[in-house]
Specification:
Two copies of one chain form a homodimer.
Chain A (H helix, E strand, L loop, with lengths): L4 E6 L4 H12 L4 E7 L14 E4 L3 H12 L4 E4 L15 H4 L8 E3 L3 H17 L1 E10 L5 H16 L15 E2 L11 H13 L6 E8 L6 E9 L5 H9 L4 E3 L1 E2 L4 E2 L2 H4 L5 E8 L6 E8 L3 H12 L11
Parallel strand pairs in A: 1-2, 1-3, 3-4, 4-5, 6-8, 10-13
Antiparallel strand pairs in A: 6-9, 7-8, 9-14, 11-12, 13-14
Helix pairs in contact in A: 1-9, 4-6, 4-9
């Protein structure tokens, strides 16, 4: 008999929580009992018998629960930003650093943009040593939760009816800078997460990186335009070869017909789609590429479920 | 009595042509006669008495007409890409290089993204010497003409009705790589225009630049995220001071409320809006900024009309 697990999901009614539940079923995760908590009913929640706990209700809920959880012996997978940058908490993508998973303690799952970008960039970094990244993220509405997705629909209907709006973050045929708090540096919190977490994920504390996050009128799936300067001598041929072999990455290009990955192509897909590879002639050993991925899957729920799979026989191979 | 001019507009029924007509009126341009041609009725068009000719019907029409026009003594302003990179044709933005205008010959007006970007970058280049630019453009539908704007509306209505599509360039809550022809370099033609024209506009043949063009579901106005490495020692304080003084540039930031320029803010506006200035810590003397402008105005029609104004008393000052 295979071992089965007592699983708890905190934030089970949110967009990411729902995807976790769907993936546990789809991937045939060996569940013994399943306990679901929304952020409303966690006050008296007990995790005494939990063996795996997913925290998908945001940073403040994770912070509230962490003391209660630390007493348990569970594998805790926090999808929020609450503890990602703490030294004693590993930031996990199983394909990159699955060996760091703390099977009876707290693990963090990274920011959506950072995880979608890190998966194809990790093999590039291993082979050629990435020196500097300039990343521009086209972030979808569902990354901001149900409310932002509803706003996208409402504002788009207004725009189609030619209504005008004074809302500075009007979302009908319009885009705007990510509305996470602006820091003294001029970067917004989302951009800082991307920059900090990329360094931690790639285990490259000296990696230079600048990120820009823009909210675009797309329902689901983030796109990222990335400029990557490497130390080693890159060639396009080897980039294709390398990423063809990378599990979880799909090269999606029809260059003859000028077709590359779009958000609609990746919705519901587990892979991170890449393309538009080109040598940037403006610096030596520099690559431009285009990355599109479902931020609710590999950018959140899927990565968390893959971490949990390290307790089972269905482990992901590291890249 | 002020001198008045015989003006011809080729492509007068297109999106840019219409804006030229509106601007001539709005800016009280001294028109004596106005001759309008659509691309359908140019075969027998005569420009014998024209003193100013706007070519706004695309590159192939400009190429067809150029021999007939060269015989004239007119100020020719070509808004297409047909001749922009030819050595004997100046690429003009009046604020940058108005002194190069050929008053009785052919002048080119630059690509929309290049012009919106060059206006704020020119004073930065003059002061600190730009070494390298990484630019990511969020390009609106109307840059692709009436057909693409209609497609945006049609596809968005389909998306709101939850219809799915196999169109790789589906435009309902979706974005895609700019569909201009893909070159052997892996850049699309639009990106090559931006890179080549920035060098010519800034008179900086050695400027290093890489560009990415993405078509986003926005009706009108392009946005550009720009990473700018300079030679000289930049400071944010001086960047603000410099751009505050730059004619045609408007700093649009409400940092306290996290409000920056959006496409909807600039539609119909002549200025290029800038903001989100921040020092990129990943390279010395490097600036991140966000530029949004109406690509039909300063990105096309307005710049062309400003070139024509060099024949009148209403000249633009160079920056």
């Amino acid at each position: 008999m295979k071992k089965r697990f007592n699983v708890s999901v905190v934030g089970s009614t949110g967009a990411v929580g729902k995807e976790i539940l769907a993936l546990l079923e789809k991937r045939d995760f060996p569940v013994e009992t399943l306990s679901l908590f929304s952020s409303q009913n966690i006050a008296r929640a007990s995790f005494k018998d939990s063996e795996i706990v997913f925290l998908a209700a945001g940073a403040s809920v994770s912070k509230d629960l962490i003391q209660r959880l630390k007493a348990s012996n569970a594998l805790i997978i926090d999808l929020s930003s609450a503890f990602r940058m703490e030294d004693n908490v590993p930031l996990i993508m199983p394909e990159i650093n699955g060996h760091l998973i703390q099977k009876n303690a707290l693990n963090s799952s990274p920011n959506c943009v950072a995880s979608l970008m890190a998966l194809p960039l990790f093999p590039i970094h291993k082979k050629w040593g990435i020196k500097r990244i300039v990343a521009t993220a086209f972030q979808a509405a569902s990354g901001g939760g149900k409310k932002l997705l509803q706003k996208l629909h409402d504002d788009t209907k207004s725009a189609l009816s030619k209504e005008t709006s004074k809302d500075p973050h009007f979302y009908g045929f319009n885009l705007f800078s990510h509305t996470s708090p602006l820091l003294d540096s001029g970067y917004v919190e989302e951009e800082k997460k991307i920059m900090d977490e990329m360094r931690k994920l790639l285990n490259a504390p000296d990696l230079k990186i600048s990120a820009t996050s823009i909210r675009v009128p797309v329902e689901r799936a983030h796109s990222i335009s990335v400029n990557i300067q490497c130390q080693g001598k890159i060639s396009l041929e080897e980039v294709y070869k390398l990423l063809h072999q990378t599990k979880g990455v799909r090269i999606f290009e029809d260059r003859k017909n000028n077709i590359f990955a779009s958000p609609q192509d990746v919705v519901g897909k587990e892979d991170v789609f890449c393309g538009r590879f080109r040598i940037d002639p403006s610096e030596p050993n520099t690559l431009e590429m285009w990355i599109v991925g479902d931020q609710l899957l590999k950018g959140a729920a899927l990565n968390a479920v893959q971490i949990a799979e390290h307790l089972t026989e269905k482990k992901n191979e590291t890249i």
